[in-house]
Give the backbone structure.
Amino acid sequence: MNFLRKKLDDLKRPFGKGKKWEKYAPAINAFDTLLFVPNHTTSTGAHIRDAVDLKRTMVTVIIALIPALIYGIYNTGYQHYVQTGEAFSFFDAFIHGTWKIVPMIIVSYLVGLTIEFIFAIYRGHDVNEGYLVTGLLIPMIMPVDIPLWMVAISVAFAVLIAKEAFGGTGMNILNPALTARAFAFFAYPTYMSGNKVWVSEASNIDGISGETILGTLAAGGNVNYSFFEMFQGSIPGSIAETSALFVLIGATILIATGVGSWRIMLGSFIGAALVGFLFNLWGANALMSFSWVNHLVVGGFAFGVVFMATDPVSAAQTNKGKWVYGILVGVFCILIRVFNPAYPEGVMLAILLMNVFAPTIDHYVIQENINKRKKRWASALKTK
Amino acid sequence: MSVDIRIRRGAKIYLKGESEKILSEASPSKTFALKPNNFFGIVPRLMVKEGDKVAKGAAVFHSKKDTRILFTSPVSGIVKEVIRGAKRKILKIVIEQQEGDIITHKVPPSNSFDRESITEVLLKSGAWPFIKQRPYGITADPDLIPKAIYVSTYASAPLDVDFQFLLKNNKEDFQSGIDILNALVENPVVLSIDAAFSGFFEKIKGVELLRIKGPHPAGNVSVQIHKHMPINMGEKVWEVRPEDVVNIGKLFADGEYSAQRTIVVAGESVLNPQYIKTKIGALLTAVTDIAGFDKSQQNRFINGDVLTGKEEASDGHLDFHNNLLTIIPEGNHYRMFGWLPFIDNKIPSLSKTSLSWFFGKKGFSVDTNMNGEKRAFVVTGEMEKVFPMDIYPMQLLKACMAGDIEKMEALGIYEVIPEDFGLIDYANTSKIEAQEIIREGIELMIKEV
């Protein structure tokens, strides 16, 4: 370790204060701090600090994403081979999925991190860890057959417009990963919906097609999957969102480590279940009579609520606000699914909509606190 | 009369190096120092110059705004040095102890205490700065009658003092100090005690007792005021530390300015952590000679606790108000892959991304490493967990950063002082310097309002 440390210190010398490459220090520091927690000591404020930092928090989210990612890779291969009718083993499916998905992840990280590094150097601050999560999320919520250049453009749009334009990490209004998906959805609709995009190679091989469950329902079709298949996730859909089971494992990690807000997750769950149940009672069309339990396990609902709605920057920030925000995400998700068949996947739009309203929700929660204080002041004046 | 206050949100951090219940005498301190920085909001005007002879209790400087507020020498001697910083700001006035005069004040007899005569003695003797005023934690304004005076004997910060033991030989002086403070305020002095161990404080007469239960920052006076009678706009509340109540009691017993200070020397680097009796502004070495510390490593000396104290050089002087000197190792080392969750669990952490809760039974070793880098506000909800007031801490911090006075006021700036954000400094993921932000916010309030 000491040897490595010395090598790094030698390497960093030209990036030091007043040296030739000082401007590029954020870039080299990003790599250095990935290896070592720096030797900085406290100078103002508390003399001791908690072991937690943003890197640790973000890495915890990545760990929570991994079960869903691995299942997504497997399911990509599984859907492909089931459709083609070829005989296949577990590993065949896995290898097929890996060849499809790993390049998407590499493209997402390359494009996104390049932009992040350029902005860090330009602004003279350290590279924030937020993109490590965003960069993994973006490929996980795309259809498997989307061309790599579209991934690249969506990433660039999300990082530049949704994040850096607002001032970088911590300042964005919209969740960057969902912004990337929304961009792709509206810019390249034929690659983001229909029955030719959800199964690997469906766009190239005529014999293959596969519509998502919500898509089928919206078109008035019948769904032939059992609840267990939907829960386990062996259904067509965006890469890593199909399995409610593996998303739940991720949710357990996020809640146990306190990184993801259980209030938002539970709130969304309650909101969606309630509205789903009410529509079941109404039951005017296929989407309305689709059981509320099934609504919770199909589509991106579980994935969106666990990994995207809980993004602390774009969600509501007060505890009360998180309940309201969570419940409304759930409510709007089912409303959009049922009333607007053009967008069968409601959760993306529901979260983006609530991202916009999160500051308003917080405003009213804070205002309640302020009003309480001012009332107290007024009554104190009266008694005097 | 007593009120129970139970605090739930907060954190007790157990550190190694807790003090033994031993009371020793300090070794003689060659020099003593007064530091204007210890008195938030005071702009000093020097009344002596280098080489002047000063008596014990003689004024060294006064407040520029209110010339009646004097800051006096804890010992007799000569002014050895006036140390100045940038823009000639006075940092420290060093007095070399020598045999010399003692100033005595004529004190009113205990049966005829009245506000004016007490205020006059406190001001002239230099005991007035023992009284701090809320909002803002500034030196009290002698012209006003506060809503209440709070004395907290419950110290909840890491390694903090047990006032029950610290003041065990000063019971009478403590009672007479309380009697004197009672003459300055309409309602009885509010005395807060540890609900678990009350001891002689319970028998103090003429006070309203608050029994406090709960983790740090339950011992902070801000939290106690907030739960008891929150400060409204325009109201002023005073605060006196327990040993200074004793100092006031002693002043009125013999007319001499009393600068007694019992220091707990604690922390992992300390060899024999214990209580040591000395005087305000003494050399650190006067107490560290007795307690000893590990000289084989680089240490940080902190006047106060690890969350809110001020760094001091090992040959520096004690501060005016603190009863605690913490010595912990510096943390200027690298940790390979230390940012992975569940790695380095020996570092105390309130986050569940660490297993430290499992390892801390016997107290944690800590050092001064930042354990990460500064980032923008990202994680939400973690500040509220260690902030037991009905105030939104993150929103208040943002209002201070933006310098939005109206918002700061509405969000509760009158009810907090920087030290209340010590745990937030410690616990927040983005390593935001909350105490510094609040201090700057309060400075802005003082300037503008």
About this structure: Chain A touches chain B through 59 residues (CB under 8 Å). The CA atoms of residues 375 and 381 of chain A lie 10 Å apart. The longest strand of chain A covers residues 36-37. Strands of chain A lie at 36-37.
